[in-house]
Amino acid sequence: MYLIKKSDVLNIAKALSAAYQVYGPVVEKVSGQTFFEKVDDISEITLAAPIPAAPPKSVVFPQAERIMSYRYAGGNTPVEIKPDYAETPKALFGLRSCDLTGIQCLDRFFLGQEFVDDVYRHHRKKMFIVTNTCVVPFKYCFCVCTDSGPCADEGYDLNLTDIGDNFFVEAGSAQGEALCKKLNLENASEQHRSEKNACVDKSITLFEEFSTESKAWISRVMNRVTTGFAKEDVWEYVGDQCFECGACSFVCPSCSCFNIADASGGNGSCNRLRTWDSCSYEGYSRMAGGHNPRKPVEDRRNKRFFCKLSYSQSKKYLRPGCVGCGRCNWVCPGDIGLPNVVKYIRRETTSR
Amino acid sequence: MNQKPGVCTFCGTGCGHFMNVAGSTVERVFPSLNHPVSQGRLCVRGWNIHELLNTAQTINRPFIKKDGRLSEASYDAAVSLLVERLRGISPAAIGFLASPRSTNEEQFLLMKLARAVFKTNNISLASEAGHRGSLNVLHGGTGMAGMLGSIQEICQAEFILVAGSDITKQNPIIGSEIHKAAQAGAKVVTIDSRRTQMAKLSTTFLHITPGALKLAVAALAKYIFQEGLIDADFIKTATKGFDAFSAVLGKLSESEISARTGIARDEFKAVAEALSRSRTAMVFFSSGISGLDEDTIGYLYNLLAMTGKIGKPGCGVNPVAGLNNLQGGYDMGCAPDLLSGFQPLADQAAVKKFSGAWGVELNTAAGAPIYDLLSKSPSSLKALVVVDHDEGFIRAAEALGKLEFVAYIGAYQNRFMDHADVVLPVGRYIEADGTFTNTDRRVQLAPKKAEPAHAVLPGWKLYTLIAEKAGVKWNYGSPSDIMDEVARLTPAYAGISYKKLASAFGIQWPCNEKHPDGTAHFDIAMAGGSITFARVSGTFDMPETSADFPYRLMIGKAQDFWHKNNLMRKTFIPMREYNATLLDYPEGYVEIAPETAKALQVRNQWQVKVVSPYGELPLAVKISEDVKSDTAYAPYFAQDMIAPLLAGHPEIVQKGEDATIPIRIEKV
Ligand code: SF4
Ligand code: SF4
Ligand code: SF4
Description:
The structure holds two protein chains of two kinds. Chain A is an alpha+beta fold. Chain A has one domain (2-350). In chain A, 38% of the residues lie in helices and 20% in strands. In chain A, a hairpin with a 2-residue loop joins β11 and β12. Chain A is globular. Mean pLDDT of chain A is 88; it is low at 288-294. Chain B is α/β, with parallel strands linked by helices. Chain B has a seven-stranded mixed sheet. Chain B has a six-stranded mixed beta barrel with strand order 21-25-22-24-23-26. The N and C termini of chain B lie far apart (63 Å). The relative contact order of chain B is 0.15. Bound molecules: iron/sulfur cluster (SF4) (3 copies). One iron/sulfur cluster binds at residues 251-254, 308, 322-328, 338 of chain A.
């Protein structure tokens, strides 16, 4: 437990930038939109910026990335194949707790099963994570319902909580502890810890007031979805509203669907790309489903909500697949962001 | 911070995005959350635009055809050859086929190149079908050649009519905005011959007989008139020409209406009442690819005029352009008879203004649209310059083969290159500053985001180079200078500048001294206090069914354009999605209602023979609730497959979404 003056907090990011490529929340000037971005100039970071529009999942799982390249000159010449992806130590500074939970879900998917995904492992290796407690929630947030915030409780190297003039700093790992020592941070007292706890408690009570767009009753609905108690007509109502844009998967911190495509560069050279994909796409479910059972759109929708909201899927992540960030509600051209779907299931909405 | 703002360059919605660019590669795309049009949304095309931008299938250097093969050349040699060849041909035999994808600055310079340097007025836009019809109706009636309402004001409309447009597929984010309005309580009515997604999301769906769209719209107008639901005050004080229109309506017989549209009188009446009683209303229809014909658009416009739903916030007649800069293309004067901002070439004052500004005497002899010229045999055209052609197939390929000279200018490899004597590459959308004008007249600046991947010139520099080689020196230091010239010569763009655009999410024209921040919707005052009803034909030809050909086949073109589109083919995910329906039916399909399947005793995926008066073809059956029992639907993207059914009948295909032919279906 340490303290750092508010005005000094970016010193942590500065220190990290010596050994890591730092990523943090940056606000785009004209639009006011927050991005979780690669930063070269630490002063660009706005730690208090609203939850970033896109989750930091692109740091470990980019929208499109080359995972291999090969070259075949034709005839009897051998094919040259080489794994081809970047490996830079990265520091995520000012991550929100929902987004840390998202990365933990991705860890389970890419690293925690039979196959260990080497590309993902390279991104994830040598990573330093600094989380930032949400002392005030945002409009669409509902992490309190999905057990993923507003304060991270594990998986970080350092966790920061704004307790007024200072940030309360918790080290969650040996490298976190070492950095605090190196920066000569002032030790915090039990008094400070209870101040931090009070801030977190206060934030939880603020959800009622601030998180106005997300009243998700996740656990009850998970029960209904798992036991098949969610009505057929509700799924149809949801399915009719899907524009098959893929946005919900792209902005979801825990969605891991991907597509593999070979992009030819001419002259027999080729880049194998891994790109984000979405179960809401008709073509995706066909690829995944093998022989083409004609899948109506509401089934593809179900798939995503099952993934996020059923117990069987939760086993995969050891937690609900939804981390309560609310982003799919921002970007959905239909009216079926996950919090809304939860509402429809709960109220058995089948029409306007 | 490496997030560069821009505008999606696929459809006419003009959604805002941010891009993460490393070198010349787009790493990531993300919607712009505060963008007034898209508000954080993108469709499947927009989310995957980086797949196109990163493709290796770009044109990376100029080519000159030698001995029937394209060989690499320098810009200098290729441009010199282009100029030399065009010089040897009389202006009336030279044509320019502009692209509805180019930036406004590129469109404007191409127009200037055609008229001021090569002295021809043969310039038109590819993939334009229909949008000119919309602009003619709106300009004729109101003086404003663009959407009368605004996408941003959809949420203020109490009543929204979607007429014959598969809008959630064509312009998904406009569809989304209409859906959101419906969720918030607006009454949304869809008129269509097939149950589209929009139909499912609507409060009311008028499932009409294929080919009856115009009649259905006329029927609504008739009931409004007959039941005294017109806005008599508005008609009296702010319109002209209503009597001629009402005379046409008076001639419609009620029994004929119901019989031919398949919609009962009470259903029409209920919609007519809802439209009339709402305080604000909008109508949306496709314009451009698979757009409606001008006569039908005239009825739609009159419908809103007679109910007083023009010239107020939350109101408007709203053509939806399928392509990103189709509206801009017209604004920049890429039409034989128009200078920028819909100023007629026949207007001497306008010609004088342009001649003066450009220091040349403009040729005022009328030009013609390129495809009209190509369709004549023999064609008077001898040389053609084509820009960024992204239609999936080459129209009039045979006529192209007969031309003396063809030049292709574009960023992406394309089958048009096979027809070209000279190929000149231009940069991708991210490689230069440029503006685009979306379907609601929003002029948006997309700043340069990347250095050219190859030594390729941006379009505006290439056109400047061509002019220079032709002996005309243009003095543009940047695209911003070109916009300044557009502003000087085009009243609707008078107040637009890069400086203004840089600090905002675009400006809707007209933008001038009176409206320095642009104009969200048409106002009656802009037309001097009075608008005019459109002249309509009063005829409603529909292909009739008979005992031999009892079903009406609709030819769905909405998805077709994107399915075959040359740009989509350079992507992975959008292409896969456009192909998805064909995965089950690789040979194409005909969609029929469950009752029809029962009558024919066929099941899903069974083979049938579709026979029309013009030909026949084998297709697989797809059973669907989305079509009515006496109708059938075949996606036009099975075009190669459908061709035998339509051979020799281009007039049917030209009817856009309302194209219909009578058929019979035989079990095999
Ligand atoms: S499902 Fe939606 S709310 Fe839940 S984590 Fe994913 S994006 Fe966030
Ligand atoms: S964001 Fe909404 S419309 Fe888009 S795929 Fe997801 S659920 Fe469907
Ligand atoms: S709706 Fe049109 S402009 Fe918007 S993302 Fe899709 S293709 Fe692009």
